[in-house]
Amino acid sequence: MRVIIAFLPALLAVATGCAEDRCDPSLWREVTPTVQAHESFGVAVLESGHVLVVGGHALGDGGRSDSRYIDDVEIYDPMNDRWRATTSLPEVLEGISQLVVLPDRRVMLVGETTRNATRARVDLYDPVSESWSQTGSLVVARDGSWPTRLGDDRVLAAGGIDYYAPGRPVHASAEVYDPATETWSLVGAMSVPRVGHRTARLADGSVLVVGGTDIEDSDHHLALLERFDPTTLAFHASGELHVARSQHAVATLTGGRVLVAGGAVGAYGHHTSLRKAELYDPGTETTVEVGDMLEARASFTLLPLADGRALAVGGVVRQDGNRALASAEVFDPETGVWSSAGCMHVARWQHSTVALADDSILAIGGFNNGTGQLRSVERLDHVP
User: CA angle, 315 as apex, 222 and 299 as ends, to 5°?
Assistant: First the structure.
C-alpha cells in the first residue's frame, strides 16, 4: 500500500532551496587526503573509531585518462588526521558495495568481482592483527548483494549479479552467514531478481530491500519493497515505492522509519537523476512521499544522524552530462523538508561518508569529472 502526504514546507523548500553554485563552502573543511585515490570502495568504522577504506578504483600513473582497480587498504586516525596503509586485499576487486562489521569487530567483504570472475569468496579483516583471512564461501557467486548484518548478528546477502556467468544473471536468491559456524546457507528467495538495490536493517532485526532493476542496465526499475524475516528465513512483499529507482540511497532513522532518497531512472546511458524522496514505515508497511531534495542526485551517500535527521552528500546529475555535486543537504523527518548542509570544496560521486565518534562527518574519495578518482577528504564538524 502507498500513501501520499503533501508537505507545504516542502514546496517552499523547492522554491528557496540552495542551488549548487550558491551553497556555503565554509561548513566543510579539507583534511589530510588518503594515501591512494579511491572510487567505488568499501568503508567501515572500526571499534577504535578509526576508519577503514578498502580497494576500489584509482588513478593510474598516466593521470586522469588512466585508471585502475586497486588492492590498497588504508586506515584513518581522526584524532590525529592521519592516513596510513595497512595490509592489502588478497586480490584486486572491481569495486565494493558494502562492508559488514561483525560482532567480534572483524570486517567482512562479501563476494564482488575480480578481473576475470565474480567471486563466491568471502574475506575477513582483523583490525587487531591487521590481516586478512578467508571464511566460508557463498553458495552463489554474486556482486553487489549489499550484505547486511541481521539483528541476531548473522549476515544476509541478497540478489546481485554474476558478471562472468553465461547471460550475466541477476539473482533473486539470498543466503545467510552464521558467524558461529562460518558457513553460508541458502534461504528463501526474493520474488524478483535484483541488482542495484539497497538494504536497510530495521529495528526488529529484519532487512528491507529497496529498488534496483531485475535486468542489468535496463530501465525496468523496481518499486516492490521486500522484507526479510530472520526467524522464518523468508521474504515477503512490504509495500511499494511511489517512484521505482536505482542508484539511490537509504537510511534507517531514529524511530525506525526508512528514508529512501534520490537515485536514477531510465536505461543505461540515458539515466535521469531524481529529487524524489519517501519514508517507509515498518509498522504499517506503507510509504509516504516527502519533500523533494534540493538537488537531483544519484550515486550519493545518505547517513542517519544522531539527532534523527539524515544527511545526503555529493552525487551526480545524470541528465546534466554526469555532473558531480559538491552540495550536501539534510532531511528533517518532523517536517519532511530538506535544507542545505553546505558545499564541499570538491564535487564527488561514488565516494563514501561515515559518522565519527564526535558526530562529525567524513567524506572520502570518489570521482570528479575534471580530475578523476580522488584522494580528497573533507570533514563536516557540525550539521546545520
Answer: 35
Strands 372-373 and 377-380: unpaired
Q: How do residues 35-92 score in pLDDT, each as one tens digit? A: 999 999 999 999 999 999 999 999 765 555 556 899 999 999 999 999 999 999 999 9
Q: What is the C-alpha separation between 96 and 145, in angstroms, rounded? A: 10
Place of cell 558467524: 179
Q: Give the C-alpha separation, 355 to 343, whole Å.
A: 17
Q: How far, in Å, CA of 229 to CA of 158, rounded?
A: 13
C-alpha to C-alpha distances, 103 to 76, 98, 150, 199, 205, nearest whole angstrom = 21, 16, 11, 19, 14
Burial class (CB in 10 A: 0-12, 13-18, 19+), 350: buried
Helix, strand counts (H, E) of the chain: 1, 35
pTM attached to this predicted model: 0.92
Radius of gyration of the chain (CA): 19
Beta bridge partners of 354: 362
Q: How many CB atoms lie within 10 A of CB 298?
A: 25
Rounded Cα–Cα distance for residues 190 and 192 (Å): 5
